[in-house]
Amino acid sequence: MRKIIITTAGAALALGIAAPAFAQDVPVEQAPFTGARAEAILGYDRVADGKDNSNGKDGLLYGGAIGYDAQVGGVVLGVEGEITGSTIKTRNSNLLTAGDNIRVKAGRDLYAGARLGFVLSPDTLLYAKAGYTNARFNTDYSIGTARIEQGDNLGGFRVGAGIERKLSGNTYVKGEYRYSHYGKLDGYDIDLDRHQVLAGVGVRF
């Protein structure tokens, strides 16, 4: 374990030293990671109780994001906003009483945050991100002819990391992992976590 920690720390230090050196080959006026951007994203989505991840549900994540980045030497600072949807849903019967049905579906997810990147080469960016996320979960409960529909908005934080690769022209692709935590859902003994792995394609203006 100690060897792994030392190796990881050494790699991180080497990355921090090497990134500015790589960027010295790119004139500031030709900084490839500066400007406004828009992208479409698609990936894997999982929502689970942080206390018992085995009870989680999987689905497809889809949506889009906009942002702005400024490259200063080998460092990129940016802000971004995102809206996504998910196919995650679950259905249970006889949960509270015999004959009842409950359906819970993940709704829209809004995110706003910042990112910090290191230029590994003129066309490759490694970055970390953090910000605020607000997710909606829609509940439909019925028993007999009675029916109750409710939507809950949960706020939380998100952290993540990814790699972006510049293609021809102003287009780019990226791969990203992020973790979100929403805390406890009112009325339920669960503590929601979210794990997402995605790919994106975008255009920088």
Brief account:
The chain has 205 residues and is mainly beta. 11% of the residues lie in helices and 70% in strands.
Description of the structure:
By secondary structure, the chain is mainly beta. It has one domain (2-204): Porin (Beta Barrel). The chain contains one helix and nine strands; from the N terminus they run αβββββββββ. It has one helix at residues 2-23; strands at residues 35-49, 52-72, 75-86, 89-93, 100-121, 124-143, 146-166, 171-184, 191-204. An eight-stranded antiparallel beta barrel has the order 1-2-3-5-6-7-8-9. The longest helix is centred in the first third of the chain and has 22 residues, at 2-23.
* Ends distance: 45 Å
- Mean pLDDT equals 82
Order of helices and strands: HEEEEEEEEE
Output the radius of gyration. 21 Å
Broad structural category: mainly beta
Structural topology:
Blueprint: H1 2-23, E1 35-49, E2 52-72, E3 75-86, E4 89-93, E5 100-121, E6 124-143, E7 146-166, E8 171-184, E9 191-204
Antiparallel strand pairs: 1-2, 1-9, 2-3, 3-5, 4-5, 5-6, 6-7, 7-8, 8-9
